[in-house]
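Need residues for this backbone.
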């Protein structure tokens, strides 16, 4: 900060001894042209520039204590000890006078409403233009001062008792601020709010203190910081119009400068006595002070720019107490609040030095991050340093004052000192390693030195006769630029000391940090850039150049630093014609993309391929980089055509006509035609071809390119026609295919040749398939003869009939057809067909899985007859997997066991179907009467005998025992019914049935404990009568012969199982059975003759050889001659228990004696070739029995036919799906 006295005036004492020359109040007019001065009983007008007296007015009888201008400048007011206030017009005419009871102490105009407050010892008054009366309010203490907030809504009044009263614009009470016990002599609102709605109020009290308050709405307030100790009593405070600074005048006879936070910035000037009033001129930095000895003085305050620059980092002082660090390239800014007056700043690399009045602080940032702006306090030197300027280094501080340079470490210790021959005019750090940095120093005697911090002896660079104002050295330290005190620029060679260049009217100079030969200098509002020996280029630019890096020039103008991108195109093009390397260096500083392209093109034309590629790489021009590579390869092969290269360059630049003319002129018409063809300019291509005799070249290629152009433009029909015309069928098919025009593709297919256009035909087939057209795709594949693809097509489109027909002639694809066919059938709920297909696909595991799935679903859905059917099919499948049933392997044994288990389950589910229908559909049994009921009764008996403790999915034992009990009671099988009810008592029964079953169980006890003989089964092998229920199995309890069931009505059949002797071959067995028995021979010839003794007492003795038998009262009938019956009885005698049951074994004679119609054979060799045949004889031939050849299940012929008539399906009809 610098101050100078702009003007000074001493008012002499008045001639009237009743008055003195004490100046109680001064103020500037709002326009800043005039000054009002209150002296004695008069008001004087002075010129604000010269302090020359202009006029005066007199309207009071006693001393005038205060004057004030309205904001609009149309009125001013004066207050006097005579207790009156006079309002004057700007033409100095009195407009209004009003009185108070006490002398007037202070006046202030509202800045918005132009209302006036007048403060006296006992009250204050408010006058407004729209009111004839002055509204007065009492004060609790003598009023001394007042001020309005900048928005005119708040009024502050300072009182003698140390309080500050806060009132609204109408004088209403808001708050009272107890500041001090000493009088409040001056208050002043800051004229700006600075991004807040609160008002800032400065208060000066006669306890030598300054206080700053933030006031919100007039009712709440907070002190900003602590009270500032002044060392004197403040008498007047006046803010600068910007609101950042204020001036305080007081009993110390000095005008001091403070910021709005209350930080002292310095002294403006000293006067001859107490300063009763001070004022700052609007929108300027002129400060007016007045004393009680009649002195008027205007000081001009100059806020000096304190700043530092290193490369793109610029630091400057802001508001005297803050530091702004700005990265001029990234345009990021940070602020450091020092809260003290900043005297000097220096910045170097990662260091920032800030000198305050009593200390010096060094800040630092991360040196590895060039964009880091987070400065942190690093070191502090806590002592007052006297110097004219300072420089910061990596580990040191340089101070200079007068002729002396001092080197201090960061602890404040002086390590080295240089004393120059003359005063130092300029110094600058020029870099270097840490602790070995160098400086360039210019003296006022014209000497320029290099100073290194590790060298005690300065090195003289240049000696000239005029004082140095500014100096800079280029990056390679070979050239020095000097600006002297007369604004002359001199450029020297630092080695030879030779003067290289000279200019006049230069204010500042700076070398480019990235290019040794380039510097910038300013003068007369112009910026000049000089490179090497070239003439300097210039442009209009105010300010001084302080830095130059790359294409950015850093200029300082009106205290503001600006980074400007300066294009280097002018210099660049001067070097482009003669020096590619220098042009490249300049381009690196900053040129346009077109400039880089020009460098690349010129270097390419000159066959400087390396420079050309570097230039094009900078702008990432890939097409020109490719051209460079191609041209360089051609140059190595020595077949690079200069004119062809220039033509290609013109093409790349879009100058096609010029390229065509150049190529044709140099006998390269074919290249021109190719160029136009590639550009899809077919009209121009034809014109060139016709003009230069090339009319028939590349017809097909031109048509092809035209077709591609039509396709790109969306003209697909024309494009496809052109593709066909030039026989590019694949492209034509693609065009039609994308549009879905299958008929056109089919037309192309018809003209394609299988041998020449195999790929195109495949493409046709692909589009046909994508559009779900099986017929067209089939034609394409048939044309190719691609049977495998045809099969895949049928499968993909589920055309199974065609696929299966195709298998007749190509069975090798069976495994590829049947498996997806089976999957499709299964997915479409055609499980039986799917099972057959899986078998044909040689996937028996999947076939079995299908049957198991069908069975499970049938059981879940309570379709038990279907479940029986599927279980029997599953059993047959397992039997079919047996390889040798006579001598089975372990795997065969497993499959045989599975066959028997599933066959038995099929019988169980078939029987359970009748029981389930009785329970779930009682109407069914009612309609069919006793016959169906007897079937159900037999079924339930069969189930009880068969399943016993076994548990099967879906079978409800409650249903079985309930049917057994219910029908047993009905058929008078009371014992069996009682058995059923007892079993039901052990099972969990639904509550709906419980009462009925309990009642029936009680009733059955009243019945005989026996079953009706009609229903008791007789074993046809041992002729024993069996109980209706045998929980050990469905066989005779006496001999163990299994009951052979009729699988329609489930009653027992008169069948006895027998086996031929093992020595008799099966074919012989069949032949013997087929022979008609000899009816005339009562005994076979092979047996001994029979002798019969006479009857005695009813007994008859029969002798067969050595065998003798006795029979009682037997008639001599046909049975006596039945060899099978005799053998059966003999076999029984050899059997010990029922558990040792074996079928009756017969010889040839017995076989021959059997009628073939009475013999039944269960022959399952159509399922398993090695499975043995089982033989049965019908011992009651009158009963018509049938045998299912497929399944080996028996039935009564009439019942079976009756069931067929009713539509009841026989579940054992199929042995496979």
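Answer:
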């Amino acid at each position: 900060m610098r101050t100078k006295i702009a003007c000074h005036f001493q008012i002499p004492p008045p001639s009237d001894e009743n008055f003195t020359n004490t100046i109680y109040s001064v103020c500037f007019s709002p326009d800043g042209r005039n000054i009002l001065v209150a002296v004695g009983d008069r008001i004087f007008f002075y010129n604000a520039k010269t302090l020359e007296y202009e006029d005066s007015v007199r309207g009071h009888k006693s001393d005038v204590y205060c004057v004030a201008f309205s904001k609009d400048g149309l009125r001013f007011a004066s207050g006097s000890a005579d207790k009156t206030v006079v309002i004057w017009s700007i033409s100095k005419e009195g407009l209004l006078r009003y009185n108070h009871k006490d002398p007037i102490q202070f006046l202030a105009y509202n800045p918005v409403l132009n209302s006036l407050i007048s403060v006296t010892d006992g009250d204050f008054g408010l006058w407004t233009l729209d009111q004839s009366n002055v509204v007065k309010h009492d004060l609790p203490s003598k009023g001394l001062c007042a001020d309005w907030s900048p928005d005119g809504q708040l009024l502050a009044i300072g009182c003698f008792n140390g309080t500050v009263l806060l009132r609204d614009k109408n004088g209403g009470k808001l708050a009272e601020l107890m500041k001090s016990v000493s009088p409040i002599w001056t208050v002043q609102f800051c004229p700006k709010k600075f991004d807040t709605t609160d008002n800032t109020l400065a208060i000066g009290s006669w306890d030598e203190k300054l206080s700053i308050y933030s006031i919100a709405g007039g009712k709440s307030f907070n002190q900003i910081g602590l009270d500032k100790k002044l060392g004197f009593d403040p008498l007047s405070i006046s803010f600068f119009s910007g609101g950042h600074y204020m001036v305080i005048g007081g009993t110390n006879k000095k005008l001091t400068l403070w910021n709005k936070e209350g930080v002292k910035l310095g002294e403006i000037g000293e006067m001859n006595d107490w300063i009763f009033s001070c004022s700052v001129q609007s929108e300027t930095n002129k400060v007016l002070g007045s004393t009680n000895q009649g002195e008027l003085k205007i000081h001009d305050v100059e806020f000096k720019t304190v700043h530092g620059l290193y490369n793109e980092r610029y630091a400057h002082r802001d508001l005297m107490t803050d530091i702004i660090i700005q990265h001029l390239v990234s345009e990021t800014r940070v602020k450091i609040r020092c809260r003290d007056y900043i005297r000097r700043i220096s910045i170097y690399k990662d260091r920032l030095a800030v000198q305050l009045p009593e200390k010096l602080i060094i800040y630092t940032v991360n040196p590895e991050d060039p964009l880091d702006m987070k400065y942190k306090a690093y070191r502090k030197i806590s002592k007052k340093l006297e110097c004219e300027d300072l420089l910061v280094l990596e580990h040191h501080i340089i101070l200079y004052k007068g002729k002396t340079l001092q080197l201090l470490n960061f602890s404040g210790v002086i390590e080295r000192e240089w004393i120059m021959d003359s005063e130092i005019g300029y110094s600058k750090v020029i870099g270097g390693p840490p602790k070995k940095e160098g400086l360039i120093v210019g003296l006022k005697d014209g000497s320029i030195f290099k100073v290194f911090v590790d060298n005690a002896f300065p090195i003289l660079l240049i000696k000239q006769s005029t004082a140095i104002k500014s100096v800079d050295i280029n990056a390679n330290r070979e050239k020095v630029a000097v600006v002297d005190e007369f604004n002359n620029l001199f450029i020297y060679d630092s080695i030879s000391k030779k003067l290289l260049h000279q200019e006049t009217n230069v204010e500042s100079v700076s070398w480019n940090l990235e290019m040794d030969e380039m510097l910038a200098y300013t003068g007369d509002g112009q910026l000049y850039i000089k490179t090497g020996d070239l003439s300097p280029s210039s442009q209009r630019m105010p300010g001084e150049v302080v830095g130059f890096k790359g294409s950015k020039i850093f200029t300082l103008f009106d205290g503001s630093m600006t980074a400007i991108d300066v294009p280097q195109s002018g210099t660049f093009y001067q070097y482009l014609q003669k020096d590619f390397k220098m042009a490249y260096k300049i381009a690196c500083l900053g040129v346009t993309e077109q400039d880089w392209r020009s460098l690349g093109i010129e270097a390419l034309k000159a066959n400087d391929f390396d420079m050309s590629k570097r230039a094009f790489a900078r702008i990432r021009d890939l097409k020109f980089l490719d051209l460079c590579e191609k041209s360089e390869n051609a140059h190595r092969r020595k077949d690079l055509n200069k004119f062809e290269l220039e033509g290609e360059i013109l093409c790349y630049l879009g100058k096609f006509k010029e390229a065509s003319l150049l190529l044709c002129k140099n006998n390269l018409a074919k290249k021109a035609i190719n160029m136009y063809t590639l550009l899809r300019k077919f009209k121009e291509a034809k014109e060139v071809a016709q003009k230069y005799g090339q009319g028939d070249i590349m017809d097909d290629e031109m048509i092809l390119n035209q077709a591609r152009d039509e396709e790109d433009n969306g003209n697909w029909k024309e494009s496809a026609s052109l593709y066909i015309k030039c026989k590019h069928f694949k492209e034509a098919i693609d065009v039609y295919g994308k549009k879905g025009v299958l008929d056109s593709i089919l037309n192309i297919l018809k003209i394609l040749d299988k041998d020449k256009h195999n790929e195109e035909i495949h493409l046709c087939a692909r589009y046909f398939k994508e559009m779900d057209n099986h017929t067209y795709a089939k034609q394409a594949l048939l044309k190719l003869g691609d049977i495998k693809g045809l099969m895949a097509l049928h499968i993909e489109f589920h055309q199974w009939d065609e696929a299966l027909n195709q298998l007749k002639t190509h069975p090798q694809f069976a495994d590829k057809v049947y498996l997806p066919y089976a999957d499709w059938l299964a997915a479409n709920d055609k499980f039986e067909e799917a099972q057959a297909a899986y078998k044909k696909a040689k996937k028996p595991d999947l076939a079995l899985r299908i049957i198991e799935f069908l069975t499970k679903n049938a059981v879940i859905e309570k379709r038990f007859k279907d479940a029986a059917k599927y279980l029997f099919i599953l059993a047959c499948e397992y039997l079919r997997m047996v390889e040798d049933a006579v001598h089975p392997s372990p795997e065969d044994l497993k499959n045989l066991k599975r066959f028997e288990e599933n066959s038995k389950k099929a019988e169980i589910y078939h029987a359970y179907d009748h029981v389930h229908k009785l329970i779930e559909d009682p109407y069914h049994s009612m309609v069919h009467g006793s016959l169906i009921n007897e079937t159900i009764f037999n079924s339930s008996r069969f189930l009880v005998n068969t399943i016993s403790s076994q548990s099967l999915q879906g079978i409800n034992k409650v249903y079985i025992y309930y049917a057994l009990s219910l029908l047993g009671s009905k058929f008078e099988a009371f014992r069996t019914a009682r058995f059923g009810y007892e079993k039901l008592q052990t099972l969990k029964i639904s509550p709906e049935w419980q009462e009925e079953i309990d009642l029936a169980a009680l009733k059955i006890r009243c019945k005989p404990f026996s079953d009706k003989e009609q229903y008791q089964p007789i074993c046809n092998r041992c002729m024993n009568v069996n109980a209706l229920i045998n929980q050990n199995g469905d066989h005779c309890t006496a001999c163990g012969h299994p009951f052979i069931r009729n699988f329609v009505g489930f009653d027992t059949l008169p069948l006895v199982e027998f086996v031929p002797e093992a020595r008799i071959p099966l074919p012989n067995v069949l032949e013997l059975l087929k022979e008609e028995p000899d009816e005339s021979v009562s005994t076979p010839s092979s047996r001994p003759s029979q002798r019969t003794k006479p009857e005695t007492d009813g007994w008859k003795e029969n002798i067969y050889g050595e065998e003798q038998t006795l029979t009682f009262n037997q008639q001599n009938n046909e049975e006596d001659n039945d060899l099978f019956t005799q053998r059966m009885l003999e076999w029984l005698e050899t059997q010990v228990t029922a558990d040792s049951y074996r079928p009756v074994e017969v010889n040839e004679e017995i076989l021959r004696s059997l009628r073939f119609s009475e013999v039944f054979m269960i022959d399952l060799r159509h399922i398993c070739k090695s499975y043995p045949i089982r033989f049965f004889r019908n011992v009651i031939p009158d009963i018509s029995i049938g045998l299912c050849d497929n399944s080996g299940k028996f039935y009564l012929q009439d019942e079976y036919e009756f069931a067929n008539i009713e539509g009841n399906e026989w579940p054992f009809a199929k042995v496979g799906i």
